[in-house]
Write a structure and sequence with these properties.
heterodimer, A: 341 residues, mainly alpha, two-stranded antiparallel sheet, disordered C terminus, B: 211 residues, alpha+beta, TATA-Binding Protein, elongated, Sterol_Desaturase_Related (chain A)
């Protein structure tokens, strides 16, 4: 495959990708379907902002946000049936069970661990020792500015954590499992090795619970934008949206079987962060995954970072014993593992 | 232990009448594409076909099955395809509720362990928290004014209790129990339909033969 030049990079030499918005298919069907799948994303975003902005204090609570989040995911699952982006990504019983298993881990054991060694405990310690008067300039800002600032700070951190995962082998090992998914569905964002899920869950979200409404608005922004990363729905996403926000198209490229394409579109919500740092590629891909699209079992997903890491250490030792340098001429590790860099 | 009484949990078996005169060779040839998928190995021996699957593709029509036997036998009214298929996915889904109940119990146990520490913390005097200011723009646009944070220690206790609530774990246990029932029925029907379409093409549905 020749690939396509995007800036200094050649994308799509290993697997087919579509580059450029003009080459991406549009929603097929009658005017009502076209209308719904063109305006759905902005309509939901603005409706949620309006809801959290005006909801009485008695309703503006985390429990309401959880309820809305679950209902939204069920709605999106229905949309996957109505207007799939690719038939080859159709949700099956086994895929649903696998995805929900990881969603379940996130709501139970990972949350439990987080309370003891994750950001939960760190945030509590900071909150108890911080002089909050120093933040009064922030708490007096308009709500939407506060909300955007919170979600941007979170996404900015996620961008660098994610980019780090693709550039540093010890972080790549746990993240690589997530890249073995071979199709995008609404709960696929939860699929990954628990070590990675713990790392990616580290953030500043809980830090702002002293600003309940701004934090809920920030959560709504994340939900109404970031949820579309992993979804099998064809939208006619508006031009302004895809310039600012991450889309399923961007994220499918990130999951492509083409190595160079995976090294793009790291942000969770705000793709303009990728645009600023030169890692954004506009396009999409259908063939996803690693090792030519090999689907990994849950058992292997649990053990892969450890077995693969151990294998790499053994190989390095063997090479040292043989007197061969563990790095090739370009400075990359000589290993069978799929390289992160 | 005799697994005969519990193997239905992760095994699916059934049978399908073939067209009169259809040979084992013909039937297995029709089914052949199902066993030419990535990660699949199969072996034919006369009237028997055995297969194993590893790292099945998500869209493999037999993705939930890991191994199995298909056999062509003579029935009362003609040749019959009998199949016996094993699925680790079904077993996993059957056991998943136990795992999540375990997580729930662990959450409760950890909550009990932490109770003395919580009581100790509750005794500490809490700092007076001021009401958050509201920006004039938000006031003008009609957003509800922020409430003064409640100092009620019961609220803090409630927040801590939520950390140790097993509800989410039990909800997922129930979800997986429901998914198992759905999957056990659905996948049984789907694989029968896949085999039927393969061996009979678009012909009329043959009458089911009891195993």
């Amino acid at each position: 495959m020749d690939g396509i030049r995007v800036g200094n990079r050649i994308i799509g030499t290993q697997a087919p990708v579509t580059i450029g918005w003009e080459n991406i298919p549009r929603v097929e069907g009658g005017p009502v379907k076209q209308f719904v799948f063109t305006h759905f994303q902005p309509a939901v975003l603005f409706a949620l902002i309006a809801f959290w902005y005006y909801a009485p204090n008695s309703i503006a609570k985390a429990s309401t946000a959880i309820g809305i989040g679950i209902a939204f995911k069920v709605l999106l699952l229905a949309l996957e049936w109505v207007n799939p982006r690719y038939r080859s990504w159709q949700l099956t019983w086994k895929e649903l069970v696998t995805d929900l298993f990881y969603v379940g881990l996130g709501y139970t054991i990972l949350r439990m661990v987080d309370n003891y060694i994750g950001d939960g405990v760190i945030i509590e310690a900071i909150q108890n020792s911080f002089d909050w008067d120093k933040l009064s300039w922030f708490t007096g800002l308009p709500l939407l500015v506060q909300a955007f600032a919170i979600s941007f700070m979170f996404d900015f951190g996620q961008y660098w954590m994610h980019r780090g995962m693709h550039n540093w082998y010890p972080l790549w090992l746990p993240h690589s499992v997530h890249h073995y998914i071979t199709q995008l569905n609404i709960n696929k964002g939860a699929v990954g090795n628990p070590v990675e899920l713990f790392l990616i869950g580290l953030g500043i979200g809980g830090f702002f619970d002293f600003l309940p409404r701004a934090a809920l608005l920030a959560g709504a922004l994340g939900m109404a934008i970031g949820t579309y990363q992993h979804i099998n729905v064809r939208f006619n996403t508006p031009r302004w949206w895809r310039f600012l926000f991450n889309t399923t198209e961007h994220h499918s490229l990130h999951h492509s079987q083409d190595f160079e394409a995976t090294r793009s579109n790291y942000a969770g919500s705000y793709i303009f962060i990728d645009r600023i740092f030169g890692t954004c590629i506009d396009g999409e891909a259908e063939l996803l995954g690693m090792e030519g699209g090999r689907r990994m079992s849950i058992r292997e997903q649990m053990t892969f970072p450890f077995t693969e890491g151990w294998k790499t250490i053994q190989e390095k030792r063997a090479k040292r014993r043989q007197g061969t340098a563990p790095y090739d001429d370009e400075g990359y590790e000589q290993t069978d593992a799929i390289p992160a860099e | 232990m005799n697994l005969r009484f519990i193997e239905w949990i992760w095994h699916i078996k059934g049978s399908l009448a073939l067209a009169p005169g259809q040979t084992a060779q013909d039937a297995f040839d029709s089914l052949d594409p199902l066993f030419r998928q990535r990660g699949t190995t199969s072996e034919r021996s006369g009237t028997t076909l055995t297969f194993t699957k590893k790292d099945q593709d998500a869209q493999d029509k037999m993705s939930i099955f890991d191994d199995g036997i298909l056999r062509i036998e003579d029935g009362a009214t003609g040749p019959v395809l009998r199949y016996y298929l094993a699925s680790r996915a079904l077993l996993f889904c059957f056991l998943a509720p136990l795992l999540f109940i375990g997580f729930g119990q662990l959450t409760v146990a950890l909550g009990k362990l932490e109770t003395p520490a919580k009581e100790e913390a509750a005794k500490k005097p809490e700092k007076e928290e001021a009401v958050q200011p509201q920006n004039p723009i938000d006031k003008f646009l009609g957003a509800p004014a922020p409430e003064k944070p409640k100092k009620d220690p019961a609220d803090k206790a409630k927040k801590d209790d939520k950390k140790h609530s097993p509800t989410a774990a039990y909800v997922f246990a129930a979800i997986f129990a429901a998914l198992y029932v759905i999957g056990r029925v659905l996948e049984d029907r789907l694989i029968r339909s896949v085999f039927r379409k393969a061996v009979r093409g678009s012909e009329e549905l043959p009458e089911l033969v009891t195993a």
